[in-house]
Amino acid sequence: MNDDLPALAARIDRTNELLTRMLAEVAKTPSTHAIFVDAGYLYAAAGRLVAGTEDRRAFDLDAEGLIEALIDRARSIFADSRLLRVYWYDGARRRIHTAEQQSIAELPDVKVRLGNLNANNQQKGVDSLIRTDLESLARHRAISDAALLGGDEDLVSAVEAAQGYGARVHLWGIEAPDGRNQAEPLLWEVDSQRTLDLDFFKPYVSRRTVAYDGSGASRPSREAVRFVGAQVAAKWLAARGRETLAELLPGHPYLPGSVDQDLLVEAEGILQYSLRGQADLRRSLRDGFWEHVRTQY
Q: What is the rounded average pLDDT for all residues in the chain?
């Protein structure tokens, strides 16, 4: 019996060594998060909060700028985690992308998933898409945290499915002018809750107007807007110093929400033209900004 003790001790030592190695590998594996956006909830709640209406036809949503702001917010919350991607869930007739949905789908790190729209313009199948993605990503350990922007009680099963595989689900809501715009059962199930307020959405939602400011200005070309983006970058470099803008480089191709909004306002002043709701021109503006900044480093 005593002769077996050294062999047993050796096996225990080998097991401990293997466990130590495994834990070290796990510690080196970065956490990963994803953002899940129920666009139906977003348009209705943000439209009501900022524009006073849930009718999409009555306001413009700068989806590209808002997505970048959501990514920036997630980066500050999940500081030691990397973004997998943003999942954008919306409805469309026969699941055929609208022009706006197509422009969102072309954004980097964004996956658009479409449910159907019925005759009353109600989304069908979106909740099941969210559940499928949440459950699949959690089951395959592709994400450790999920930021879910939504409010429907039907999302409870999606939350439970992801949590069952060890993922943490964080519910993001939109400030309601009165009452609550998220189902209580959903609030009970999630791991944490945050509310995005009016100031967060104001830069990205505006009452629908004509594309220009009334001065008769024609729509500028993408190259013209790109050049203005470079102009603004040059002005910022001169005013704020290379050190300040160098802090933006690790976030490329994204800009913090406040910086992106300042860029938009300054560019519109130069162009005398509104870029709200025009994703292609907004993209050209950022491209010009980044191109100039990166040539200086």
A: 83
- What's the rounded Cα separation, in Å, for the pair 58 and 6? 79
The answer, yes or no, to whether the previous bond of 253 is cis (omega within 30 of 0) is yes
Task: Calculate the dihedral angle through the C-alpha atoms of 177, 193, 167, 111, rounding to the nearest 10 degrees.
Answer: 30
User: β-strand 31-38 against 81-92: which pairing, if any?
Assistant: parallel
Chain segment 206-217, per-residue pLDDT in tens: 876 544 444 446
Q: Which two tokens stand for residue 109?
A: 């790190």
One-letter-per-residue 3-state SS of 226-255: HHHHHHHHHHHHHHHCHHHHHCCHHHCCCC
Tell me how far apart the alpha carbons of residues 246 and 131 are, in angstroms, rounded to a whole number: 39
Token pair, residue 108, equals 């980097």
Q: Where are the beta strands (DSSP E) in 57-180?
A: 59-61, 81-92, 110-117, 123-124, 145-149, 168-174
Tokens 């595989």, residue? 165
Asked whether the beta carbons of 201 and 66 are under 8 A apart, the reply is yes
